[in-house]
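Read as chain and fold; for instance:
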Amino acid sequence: MAQRLATEYVNTTLQMTEFQMNQFLLTADTCYISHRVKVLGGGEQEIVLEENGGEAIRLNVERRGHLYICTFSCRVVNPHLNNAVRKLFVTYKGSGSVNRIYQGFTMEYYYESGSVRRISELTANGSKLIYQHKQSLSEMMTLFKSDAIEREIAALRLEIDSLLDCRLTVQSDKMIGEIDGKLAAINRRLIELEL
């Protein structure tokens, strides 16, 4: 089995509630890992996870409403620190790319809300798709039951009726031309939606 050399987290985002953030900070310290919290200007925070050997990563945390949004990009070599970041990423349903680097190749995992959506193998010869998420039956049923397009069509028809009523009362050729332009754009959109 290939030995992993490092793990890269690229443009990673996590969302935590205040309770989850406090829980994370309580469990972040282990016999191998310690943490520090720095308060930055504007109320943002930076959490530094540091391994006993000196390797550290920085997590930028911004509060938005009742959620804490944690963003980071880093390269982790130490297995204990890598395990701590992996648990954080999985527990709080991270989104972004995770590159697991081996001798001669890299496995790229793309996550959305904690679920793997795509796995690719990257080598000097190019990229090879290993796995691609397909929509589940429940996701397809939700999409099938969605009536967003029907609501947009109904709204566009109401707008057409309003523009036609307005066109009957307008005397200016310039105004009639503007209304006809709007009607043509709406008609194109209706054709797109009804296809």
